[in-house]
Amino acid sequence: MKLVVFGDSLIRPRPEMKEEDITEYEDTYAYKLRELYPNADILYIESLDTEGALFLNERMVAFRRPDVVIYHLGINDSVQRVFSKNSKSILITPVFTSFTRGFFLKVIHVFRPFIIRYFGEKKCYVGVDKFESNLLKMKDDVLRYSPECQFLAVSIKNKPDKDEKRSPGDNRLIDSYNKVIHKVFNSGYVDINMMADNNSGIISDGIHITKLLHKDVFLELNRRIISLREKV
Known about the structure:
Elements lengths: L2 E5 L21 H8 L4 E4 L5 H12 L6 E5 L2 H4 L15 H6 L3 H8 L1 H8 L8 H18 L4 E5 L6 H6 L3 H16 L3 E2 L20 H21 L1
Parallel strand pairs: 1-2, 1-3, 3-4, 4-5
Helix pairs in contact: 1-10, 2-7, 7-9
């Protein structure tokens, strides 16, 4: 069986974090899957959203003609931002931040909840409708080369309460993007939020998952893969 795991930084190990947040490569659900399925390919790109994934998906996933694809995408599409994608704002240029000693970025940090509440949703990197069309295109591109391919898609993890307060409305948006993932992948949808509540399963950066949640995701994905293989 040819298995491909494709996603953003949620997949990767995090050995550089402080001790309580460390996730070694061997702790990740992708590594655990490859122990069981040696032909598995693990592909992750930092800060990847579905706009960026479209091109890579065809060349890195579809061209492999996989039997099963696991996607883990969406956090970079859905969360609210202070600055738009590829912003050329002077406020974030190195020269300006160095000259002002980061004063304006510190002000933005203090007033972030207010800024996000009124402007953040407009600066999401990928709107929910475009997110859906991107996922459908990715799925279609794989099926063009591997018509019998089966798909699993891990949902976006909701943010802890403290991070939701800093970026109010993120969890509402995450829920709407998860509904899209569920719609596109149907029975292949893997609900990570059923495995841990909002205030557990996430390390201190408020985004990436703990080694314990990696283990739970692995167990559920492997259960689903076994079920898919039994139906073939």
